[in-house]
Specification:
This protein is an alpha/beta fold. 39% of the residues lie in helices and 23% in strands. The chain contains eleven helices and seven strands. It has helices at residues 3-10, 17-23, 29-36, 53-60, 72-81, 116-126, 145-154, 165-173, 202-209, 213-216, 220-236; strands at residues 43-47, 64-69, 86-89, 102-108, 127-140, 190-200, 245-257. The chain has a seven-stranded mixed sheet, with helices on both faces.
Amino acid sequence: MDQGDRTLLSSSFGAAAVAYAEHRPDYARTAVRWALKSAPGLRVLDLGAGTGKLTAALVALGADVVAVEPDPAMLTELRRALPGVRALPGSAEAIPLPDGAVDAVLAGNALHWFDMAVAGPEMARVLAPGGVLAGLWNVMDDGVEWVAGLARVSGSAAIGPRDTPTGWRAETAGMHLPGTGTAALFGSPEQAEFPHGQRRTADSLVTTLATRAGMLVMPEPEREATLGRIRAYLASRPETADAEFTLPMQTCVLRARKS
């Protein structure tokens, strides 16, 4: 994905900020703990914080959190949900914090939107020595048969290459932060996956998938046709046709330590 496409997709979420806040899942607490495990302290930057899904999990674990988000509508939802959190406008490429201000930088479903050539040095700058960088992604567990079927029906705009465990492993295996000269900014990344789930109805799952970036920028006729296929599939499956169900998920983490 080139930078122009990345910018277009990453800037699409503001139009769906309220739905994003209501329907996007939180993050498995075990995954967040693992992300922070080797950090030298609990001063944490939630970068690309969106409406505060990851921010809330960090607060619950006792972290001293500052949230940074570039989209005004998303930032408004975050401040409404978490009025006690310091929440600032800014981006991964221009972080509004001083050098060495945090012990960990976490990004929830956001690290792939960053321009790493610029964001890498910025994240290293705000991290204390030995600080941790971690990206977290909520993915659907397509090891479950009906979830695999949903991924096929939905198409890549709704369930993309980082939205299932196998795809996530492949997409993030080579993700790294650039070095400066001969000295790498971060050590070798580690990957880990943690079981997760979200209570859903067919309607709320369709609404959630409609907040994916690829869906938000899709022409309206194509978008409605895609959502119609998803609704029909969920109505046809005994697991999802009636009442609430648990959507099988994993929270996947890519973690690296500042050199």
